[in-house]
Here is the input.
Amino acid sequence: MRHSSLNAFLTNGAALLAKGPVALIFIEDEIEVDSTLRHHLDLGFRQVVVLMPPAFPLAADVARKVIRVDHDVKRAAGFTEVVNRVIAAAPGIWLYYCFNAEYLFFPFCESRTVGELATFHGEERREAMLTYVIDIYAGDLDRHENAVALEDANLDKSGYYALARNDPDNHNHPKERQLDFYGGLRWRYEEHIPPERRKIDRISLFRAKPGLTLRENHTFSDEEYNTYACPWHNNLTAAVVSFRTAKALKTNPGSTFDIHDFRWHNSAPFEWHSRQLLDLGLMEPGQWF
Here is the structure.
């Protein structure tokens, strides 16, 4: 199904937002579009909405299963405006957002669906889930100049850390149950990354409600949505495994010539399985066994 614009989708496709979880996937370029969509379809999203320029191609098997919305996120409304408009149109529905060449993993995702994940999280009285954006990158940049290669993907095994998130409205005291997380390529190549874009935490999965808005820094207007856990025990977290930073560093003229190999002594091949991310502490099963 295809809609000519975001307005057309929100006007004519409202019934498609009646049940979730719904994935909103923003396509910034033509790299790994089909694999991104297939991955999220396999996770069990009720609807996968892909926002992409009208000239970009889609594989026939993918095109039959997704809702395509003609939209250029680089020239028209940005991702925050789109997400906020969908929030307003779908109160009570679980939503997820990411970009092409990004892949959601959650504990036991090989045998459980994203719908089961959202149901359990909701039963714990949680309305949003913290996800860590884990950088992956091609091991051989001579063969893969844009740093993207599914069969040669690597990730950092260590180098991740968290800092207190200060509250400017409370004399810069730390916010309760909120942290800023860092690591991966954004940490190792921070000289090429603006400070406001160095964090790797993102509230990717959340339940829409009236008045809720997403900010440019991937946090929400409701501060409870930005917490990593409830007050009484640890909650589920997930990971968005992403080529996006590696791709940007190797295609940006200001950084590409400084980088000849993303691998270092703490690199490891990415196994494309949730168990590896759990073993590395890059997501948390909480009380979900």
